[in-house]
């Protein structure tokens, strides 16, 4: 079905009638979100000289082309997660890795923790929907552990390390895990408007369930629906600094104080786009998540503009409580 038909059908089921120009602006924005940011596929060289992959369907690279793959892993994930500080005092370190991809984040984290504390026991749980067919090697320093992980997929136990990859849709697989108590979560799916099922309030609630109270959640994304979902889940938020041409990402923790800049906090309070993606059964089609979100944004824009929004026959979204 074309996007327009899907949006019209959504509005009809929700009992919402919108003026045509509002429908047009919804459709325009949805088509921009869905448009690939890059064309092509396969291995690409980043501006820092290392390599990553382009995903043809999402139209996005697995790592930032301007920041470089290794630098992004270290500066956007490893350092903000405080795993290296924890490695100095903990005997057992647990990492939850959402979006295993090429396995770069995991390999770089494990090698870096090992360098600091060779005796630490490292436990990694990774989630991945589809493994790529070709994987460019990491620079020499990280190559041995990277190759070991790939050779032993989906899981292995070694002196000092256990690794387990859950293949399939992370929304289904994450529910199989009773407890994990992660000290850090690397949340590294494709961008929220391209891969919304990985950034919903309800999926993030599952991730939170597997975190240690002192755990730190990190991602490269600073998008409003993501931050709103984290805030509604009770996380405190701060930003990571920008790497390459990429904007700063988000750090979320359960203990501590909010530390977003005033401007970012203001956006989170006032922007009509600061609404979480909703996926209560954890099985909505990604496009349906986006349509539901964008219609709720439009209703909020109308309310903020002083226009009476049409009352849906049933809640257009659903309660996040
Ligand atoms: C940006 S890449 C991850 C890069 C990876 N962290 C690395 O360091 O190489 C995003 C990954 O999320 C995966 N992904 C997207 N949707 C998913 C889903 N519903 N369940 C599990 N994995 C998913 C993609 O297949 C892709 O490999």
Largest sheet: 8 strands, mixed
Order of helices and strands: HHEEEHHEHEHEEHEHEHEEHH
Number of helices: 11
Reading off the top of the CATH hierarchy, the class of the domain at 67-269 is best stated as: Alpha Beta
Associated small molecules: S-adenosylmethionine
Quaternary state of this entry equals: single chain
Give the overall average pLDDT: 93
What fraction, in percent, of the residue positions are helical?
A: 25-40%
User: What CATH architecture of the domain at 67-269 do you see?
Assistant: 3-Layer(aba) Sandwich
Overall geometric form: globular
The fold-level CATH name of the domain at 67-269 is Rossmann fold
Lateral arrangement of strands in the main beta sheet: 6-7-5-4-8-9-11-10
Q: Could you say which structural class the secondary elements and strand pairing correspond to?
A: alpha/beta
CA distance, first residue to last residue: 32 Å
CATH homologous superfamily identity of the domain at 67-269 = Vaccinia Virus protein VP39
Number of strands: 11
Q: What portion of residues belong to β-strands?
A: 15-25%
Unreliable spans: 315-321
Computed over alpha carbons, the radius of gyration is 20 Å
Kindly describe this structure.
With 321 residues, this protein is of the alpha/beta class. The protein has a domain at 67-269: Vaccinia Virus protein VP39 (Rossmann fold). The longest helix is centred in the last third of the chain and has 19 residues, at 286-304. The strands form two sheets. Strands 6-7-5-4-8-9-11-10 form an eight-stranded mixed β-sheet, with helices on both faces. A three-stranded antiparallel β-sheet has the order 1-2-3, with no helix packed on it. β2 (51-55) and β3 form a beta hairpin. Helix content is 38%, strand content 19%. It has helices at 3-14, 20-34, 69-81, 83-89, 104-116, 140-151, 170-173, 201-209, 224-232, 262-270, 286-304, and strands at 42-45, 51-55, 60-61, 92-98, 121-128, 155-158, 161-167, 182-187, 211-219, 236-239, 250-253. α1 (3-14) crosses α11 (286-304) and α3 packs across α5 (104-116). The chain binds S-adenosylmethionine. S-adenosylmethionine (SAM) is lined by residues 62, 73, 99-105, 127-130, 169-171, 188-190, 195, 197-198.
